[in-house]
Write a structure and sequence with these properties.
By secondary structure, the chain is of the alpha/beta class. The protein contains twelve helices and seven strands. It is globular and about 50 Å long.
């Protein structure tokens, strides 16, 4: 675990350590944790160029006004509206970003998602919307933009909470097998396995899958009926507040995961270096081989099923499944 004081001290050195004018992509950054991480990144980098992907143009315009005004007027910021439950929309965004960045993308931060307590909701592409935005869409961004050689990729989801996969129905097409828990387990476990697989294929990129824990954002009361939302706001939230993380602190932690040498690429770890800010005093390089599963308190860990999945080489199988899904979606949308 790395304390918040050490995290903030590390982040304060970003502007003097990293090369100026970094280019970054933030997906799902118009509210909550993604927004907090975006603002922390902008505040601590020199003349960044940041592409912000989300659903709400209105929210994005307010954020960009703040970025240009008080946070970092030297930065360049552009909003790209997209429905990230659809792979075709991800492809459109990726193509646009490729054309804009001139072969240079340094950082990717993926936090798109929403709460849902309903059943399977199939998109026009044949995927469940929630599983798509939590896993397939994020991996499509990664797959399409890895040729730009990003130094660090962060996916904020549910690392260390990995669960059991339904191996004969990885996309959870059977409504009888679909549920909140199965969707959570699949999205988290497949993300961790995919990152560990990709870290070997792209040894100059560092991959971090993190779990923020319970963060006090509006998302905690969204997706509920009005009376449940009131119950959450006035009774549940006050009770759990001592166990939550402030969204500002969470943004600082995520920025640390995205920029610190504690989480080096595979080649960076082998060479004893890597891109990023030098470690704070008393902090060691994290356990991992270019891919890091980080829990709510900054600890490195993994859900119980991960050991067996690693021994069976499931990372390669999950990535093969993922690419097959992308191919099938492409046939439907072409």
């Amino acid at each position: 675990m790395v304390g918040i004081a050490a995290v903030r001290a590390s982040n304060a050195r970003i502007s003097s350590t990293l090369a100026p004018s970094p280019t970054a992509l933030f997906v799902g950054a118009t509210s909550g944790i993604g927004q907090s991480t975006l603002e922390a990144f902008a505040a601590n980098t020199q003349s960044p160029t940041i592409y912000i992907v989300g659903r709400s143009k209105t929210a994005a315009e307010i954020i960009i006004d703040e970025l240009k005004g008080m946070i970092n007027p030297a930065g360049k910021y552009e909003f790209i509206a997209a429905d990230c439950t659809l792979i075709s929309e991800v492809d459109r965004v990726c193509q646009y970003v490729k054309e804009k960045v001139n072969g240079k993308l340094d950082f990717m931060c993926l936090s798109c998602g929403y709460l849902s307590f309903g059943g399977r909701n199939e998109t026009t592409e044949g995927l469940d919307a929630l599983l798509s935005i939590r896993y397939y869409a994020r991996m499509r961004f990664v797959q399409q933009l890895l040729p730009l050689h990003p130094k660090h990729i962060l996916s904020i989801l549910a690392a260390t909470t990995e669960g059991t996969l339904i191996e004969d129905d990885l996309s959870l097409k059977d409504p009888k097998k679909y549920g909140i828990l199965s969707c959570a387990a699949h999205s988290s476990t497949m993300a961790s396995l995919s990152f560990e697989h990709l870290a070997k294929q792209y040894p100059d990129t560092a991959f971090v899958h993190s779990y923020p824990g319970i963060v006090k954002t509006k998302a905690l009361i969204s997706g509920f009926s009005w009376w449940t939302a009131l119950l959450m706001k006035w009774i549940v939230l006050p009770l759990i507040t001592p166990f939550t993380t402030k969204v500002e602190d969470c943004g600082q932690l995520c920025l640390f995961y995205l920029t610190s040498k504690r989480y080096p690429s595979l080649n960076g770890k082998k060479s004893g270096g890597g891109d990023g800010v030098d470690l704070p005093e008393g902090v060691e390089v994290a356990e991992g081989e270019g891919a890091y599963l980080v829990g709510a308190k900054g600890e490195i860990g993994a859900g119980k099923p991960m050991k067996g999945y690693r021994e069976r080489g499931m990372g390669e199988k999950i990535w093969e499944h993922t690419e097959n899904v992308f191919e099938e979606v492409g046939k439907k949308t072409s």
